[in-house]
Structures are given as structure tokens and as C-alpha cells.
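Aim 2, interim progress. The first record below pairs a target sequence with its C-alpha cells.
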Amino acid sequence: MVNRMFVRIALISLPLLAIASSASAALHYSAELSDDAQRLSVSMCTDHPLAPGTLRTGSQNARLVSLRGDGSSRPDQRGDRIAHERLDAGQCVQYSIDSRAAAESDRYRLGWRADQYLMLKLTDWLWRPSKIPAGSTVTLHLPQGWSASVPWPPMDRSGRRYRLPDTPRGWNGYTAFGRFEERRMTLPGGQLRVSVLPTANARQTEQLHDWMALNVRAVLTSSGRLPLPDAQVLVVPLPGNRSPTPWGQVSRGGGSALRLFAGLDAPESVRNEDWTLSHELAHLFHPYLGDSGRWMSEGLASYYQNVLRARSGILTAERAWSKLDAGFGRGLNERSTRGQRLVDVASGYRGTMRVYWSGAAYWLEADAALREHHGTTLDSVLAEFARSHLPAYSRWQAAQFADELDRLAGTRLFAPLYERYARSTRFPDLTDTYQRLGLGSGVDRLRLRDRAPALAVREAIMTASPSVSVASTRRRDDG
């Protein structure tokens, strides 16, 4: 069997292909950060003979300062690529990067704090083949007193050894090394590895960890379990900023991860009620759906950011319905993309309000229909999807995701609803859904009516599953 790990030069002879080992050549990376954090030295070694191939990073910030190889490998940098010849079992390609220069290239100028931390994209330093073979690993060697926050699933509790999954090379992922503490929140179904980059105020760090625990409890009100066995959470504090969470993002390169920017001067009560963290955590319930499926993924997070917070008591049910209605109103009033199909608008990163809140309407319609007609819930269907398919290390098509939800639920609901929404050229008409749930006569006409059976379904959507305790364990590695 030809080894498929490397992108091969097109004109390659059959005798050369025969060199590749029949066994899969797992790769073992070892990365050592210098004591001053200004250089990161990496060895990529193979445990089986490895055919000639190409390593790439995908970033212009990956600044090599040295490159060499064992035996006859003869590694050679060609732009953003390292080409190498055959490696025998146990042989390595070794390189170093200017880690400070890479960190300081961060567009927000938050990548480097002298003697405190550095934050790097995976593509800033990890040269890799197009495919990562099974069994590949990463081992870290850090300065005394430094810890790591990385997206890879840990192999033990040392904070030093990780499994390297085969996620697409173009997917974003972030690593941070510094004088901070990684805390592992042990949950039903998995763990969150939470790191807050160093702040000058220990009390503010504790407030950020409390904020995390509060929102994690909200996520657990969906099914009582974390949808993933492991996820990285990296919090970047912003001194002098009063916005509770100016920005957050989910990344999937190397594994599932959240990166959140938190204003340190935001009042604690304002931060705890902010929707951003619940929104980003809700993205853990689905696979990567690509640009054309952005309306589904952002819609699910926008729907759940209100539902889950109501279930956990952060919001009242009435306020959660009011926030959903306000969001639908913003989507309805988004005029710039009317006449264009939702799937096309989402792919072009336009019409944000229409994209997010059309998606939220999709999930509300699906959740209500499941509860009214199928004897199940969106929570249950997504939990089954998580058990069957997450973590997902490749992209799912949005239509494929809808089909699979139907298969798991035993319904013909998600796919037809997907087709209707994806082709729609204006915001969906929610009049019928509002009336069935006793929410009034349509968007911007919210009026909660206590009439069964509408009341029963409406209350059930905002009602939590049995409460789940969250344990937080501290770990600090000092060398």
C-alpha cells in the first residue's frame, strides 16, 4: 500500500514509490522552547521508513532559523515548504523558528509578553504533511515554571504529551506557552482544559474561571453531558477593556478549541450575563460545516446562547424569549441581502444578522416540531449525533448534517427544513411557530400566552435537564 502521508511531486517513478514502507509511519514531534522563549526547536521523527515528501505550515509567519535532517533526508526549504528525501525508521527532520518574531506578528499585538507568555498559531510553527498518520504524537519541553495550552488531546496529565489528530492543514488552531495555570474541568462526557493567560491581578483570574464554570453549567443543561471528550479553552485577558467579551472564536485545527478575549475592567455581573461564552461553547455541539453551512452553525449557537442560559438561571425564560425575538427582529430588518439565497449570503460572509438569526429560526422550528410531533428534543438528537460522530476531524456538508440528524431522530424534518431555509431569499416567516408556542402573532409582536399545549412546549424548551455538578482540578507543571 502506497504511503499517502505526503503530497508527492507529480512526476515520480514507480521504483521510488516502492521505497515507502507498507506500515503507516507515525510521526513523533518534539518541541523545545528556549528559556527566554525566543526560539522554538522542533524535531519530526518517524518510527517507520518514510518516503520522500513535503512538509508545509500554511503561514508566512513561520520563520525558520535552522533546518537539518538525519541520514540522506537532505531537507530543503522552498518558500512555505520543506522538501525531504527518504527517512529511515528513527530518523528526524529538525528545525527551529524565531518564536518571538512569530508571536509578535499577531494582528492584535497580543501574541508576546516578555517572561509571561507567547501565543502562536499552529501554522506559525508546525511543519506537517498533508495527512497526519494514526499514532502520531507531540511532546513539549518548556522552561521551568511554564505551562502549555494546546488543542491536541492529551495522552496523560503531564501537560507535555499529546496525540496529534489528522485535521486538515488549513484549519486554524492556537497554542500558548507561559506562566499560567491550566485547570481541567472534569465533566460528564469529557473535560475542558481551561487556561487564562497571565494577569497582574489574581482576583481577576479567579473571576474569569468562575465565569467559565457558570457558562459550562449552562451548556450541560442540554443533555447533561459535554458533547466532546476533550476541548481546549484559552482566555486572553484585555487590561483596560470594559467590554466583557469583545470577541470569541472556535477553532478545530488539531482538535476542538475555544479562544476568548475578556475585558478585565468589565463588571463581574455584566460579564456573567454576557452571551458570547455560551454562544461559543454551543459550537461544540456540531461539526465544522464550512462557509455555506455557516447559517446553520451560527444559528445553533445563537439559539442555544439564550435557551441554555435560561435553563441554568442566568436569564429568566421570559427574558430569553425576548432576546430571541429581538434577534429575529434584527434578522427580519436586515435589508441588504434580500432577494439572495441564504446559502449564498452565508458563503459570502454578508448579511450577518440575517445569517445568524435565520439559522436560529431554523433550530427553533426544528426543536418545536420535535417536541410537538416526534416525542423527542433537539437536545436528544444532538446528543446522539455527538455520541456517534464527535469529535469530527473533517468537514461535514450542511445538507449531510441535516440528513444525519433525521436518520438519528427517525424523522423527515431537518432535511426538508434545510432545503427550504437554504434556498430562501428573505427572512423566514415565523408566524405559525409563534402562534403554536403562544408567543404572539409573529416577530416583533412577542406576547407570552399561558395556554396549553403551547405553554407546555414553550416551557419545556427553556427547562433544564437534571443538574450536573462541575468539578475543577488545578494543575501546574514546573518543568
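The second target in this work package is listed in the same format:
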Amino acid sequence: MQRTVLAAERTLLAWVRTALSMIGFGFTLYKFFQYLRESEGLARPHAPRNLGLTLIALGTLTLFAAAIQHRQALRDLGIGLAQARSGLAIAIPLLLALVGVLMFASIYFGTGPF
């Protein structure tokens, strides 16, 4: 049973890694093209911003979906979060999703530290 729980956590962490890559790549695209727009001027200034926002949104949604899928997998195994000691494994993607939401809102509304 322990091996199955650990396998579920490895799957969750693979999803987290993928989602963070999407969020990071989206943010990088946004900042890079923001720099180019300021220095050279782009013909379509909102296209890179929209692509960056799309990747950030997909990464954030992926984090939520991964947390839900992990919880369902444990429930299907008949294991609660207390038994599996996966509270931290669920908390990490949810906290990172919160950061993704804040990053998305910051870029979309043009306020905040990003």
C-alpha cells in the first residue's frame, strides 16, 4: 500500500513540475517580449502577453487538476489524507496555484510586482 501511495505522490509531483514549467515559460515569454516591445516596438504588442497569460492560466489550472486527481486517487485506494500523510503533497500544488493566480491577475490588470 505504501508503494502505491508513493507512486501517486510521484505522479502528483510530475504534474506539479509540468505546471510550473508552463507558468515559468509563460512568465518568461511575457517579460521577454515586454522588454522587446519597450526597446524596439512590436507590431502586435498584445500577442506575447496573451500567450504568456494563456500558459500561466493553463499551468495554474493544471495544478488544481493535479491536486484533485491526487485526492481522488487516494480516495479510490481507500486512503484518507491523514493516513497517507499527503497533506503537504496537496498543499504545495495549491499554494503554487495561488501564486499562479496572483501572477495572472498581476499581469492581466497591469498591477503588482510582476
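The helical segments are 2-39, 46-76, 81-84, 87-109. This observation will shape the mutagenesis plan for the next reporting period.
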